[in-house]
Amino acid sequence: MPRFLGQVSLGCLTLDEIACPRPARPWLIDLSLLKPVFPLIPGDIADFEAAPDFGRWALGDTPSNEALQLRWNVIEDNGRQLLASDRMIMARVSWDDLNAAGYVTGRQVVIDGRSYTCRLLTGGNDFRIAEDGYQGGSPVNEWDRYIGRDANVIGLPAPNPRSPSSELTEEDLASPHNQLWNWLGAVSWTQEPYLHRATARCCRGYHSAKFFYLNTQSHRHEDIGWRPVLEAI
């Protein structure tokens, strides 16, 4: 059975070799087009379109300034350890951008002298129940096992059940589950193509911890982005 081993601070996101602040408001960065149902000020996730070249972005060594350090939820499963980012760290980046940079299925990075494979979580390639994103994705995948907590991970809080009639509230924002995973108002790309449309890719979050969604692989949106996961090599 998977176990939650706690949270660690490791590395940072850099632009032109300068460390970016860890997002303190890890939700959509532009409220002019899309809004949660309760008032939020815009998020402060790094915006890829401000410098749309992955040659300028990297995961760097852990800085001394705590506000710059990335946070990772550590999960042990079947003898391996995964470090899953506790929030989206880049918005307005497309699946194609991430894939071209090698971050979809795995790219080697070195942080503090240790090598990791950096990739996206798997998230399923279809709705678990047709057209009901609140029920999660299919087949079995990492997002639903760990964040959706299908696997009943020891030490992790369970998300509250949600449905299309549920409205996002400030209580959802402050809930233990959202504080650990920061899914509210942020849609994270996952690895898989959508089963029924060649140009669509699957993404998760925003409306609920288990929410399954899809978007065109080349699109860059204010609420969709990069949530990396690390595996030690």
What does this protein structure show overall?
The radius of gyration is 16 Å and the shape is globular. It has one domain (3-232). The chain is built from four helices and 17 strands. It has helices at 95-100, 142-147, 170-174, 176-181, and strands at residues 3-9, 12-15, 18-19, 46-47, 57-60, 71-77, 80-85, 90-91, 107-111, 114-120, 126-127, 137-138, 187-193, 200-205, 212-216, 224-226, 228-232. The protein starts with a strand and ends with a strand. With 233 residues, the protein is mainly β. A hairpin with a 2-residue loop joins β2 (12-15) and β3. The protein has a six-stranded antiparallel beta sheet, with no helix packed on it. Strands 4-8-16-13-14-15 form a six-stranded mixed beta sheet, with no helix packed on it. Strands 3-2-5 form a three-stranded antiparallel beta sheet, with no helix packed on it.
